Target: Putative methyltransferase
Amino acid sequence: MNSEILAYEVQQFINDNLNTDIHKILLSKSKFPEVSSRELVEQIESKLKAKTKLPTWFNAANIYYPNKLNLSQTSSEITANYKTTLVHGTTIIDLTAGFGVDSFAFSKKMNHVVHLDKNKELSKIAQHNFKQLNAANIECLATDGLEYLKEANTPIEWIYIDPSRRDKDNKKVYYLSDCEPNVITNMELLLEKSSNILIKTGPLLDLKSGLKELTHVKEIHIVAVNNDVKEILWLIEKDFKNEPLIKTLNHKTDSVQEFQFYLTEEQNSASYYSKPLNYIYEPNAALLKSGAFKLLSEHFDLRKLHSNSHLYSSDQLFTFPGRIFKVEGVYDYSKKILKKEGIIKANITTRNFPDSVIKIRKKLGIKDGGEIYLFCTTDIEENLIIISCLQIFQDP
Model:
């Protein structure tokens, strides 16, 4: 950590050049003898990334940022704040705390937060930033989280862990057992020290795979922001042996779409099918990740277009955790027909369709954008169809 970056003149330069071409800065000689051009660019890039992801950090003075790769791996402020709704009590230990976004969120709910990270540089950066953010109840220790646990001799209310999804060669890994630290092999230690464990995993982890590897899972939370799944949270309670509850959340600008269920509900549900009716329903990304495909049809009284399409339809308009569209027309997969209908510009989505969006645009001569939405899918009679729609915006 180069403390010279926190000098008033350097901070002023960073703020004044947020919209400057970073290549010009990188190729120019730094105005500051103790701060290199690369360090300036690194701070500018990371601060720009924080503008939407971490607005509290962006708007605070004298924040020190790590490189943008490290920042990209941290929680967003929205998802970090959501985690605070899952914990209770007075103390939580963040075993792999990194930049400290989750630790800071927990500090607003818990009396005492222990921020652990074996990266001494990150630990020092986090400690500095917590002071700037007036978070006095966070204890920062530059040490290995598992080693800290082994030495702990008092009960711990909550343990939070976000295993790194990169291996020693910095390549992405997708299975829990490949993450670092390995929560599977260390679960006995975790449950020995605390009855409440919260694990964050990446959005690509398969739920069934996770349930096979983890024990005592009480709840699974699939968290999306603006229809993009950001993380999966696994709430583990010592000695819990019942079926876990699955919760899906899609944080929108002005509301949150929520849906929850048990896997047995999905297994025992039956889908109802039809050709496209007056309205089309597209589940949000968190729902699609959850796999609650038959249950949605039964729960919302909707008709599925095909067993593998995951698009739903109805004659009447219903509230739904996803996007809703008014059907304007249903056509065969034909350029001639769409041209006749005057459709030359549209937003295209594929569901259970053999061609990619790029190939469809080329074949049909459709430009991107506009108010029209085209769903390219397969119907219950195995026909390739195109559904032309206009989006309906639901009340929050």
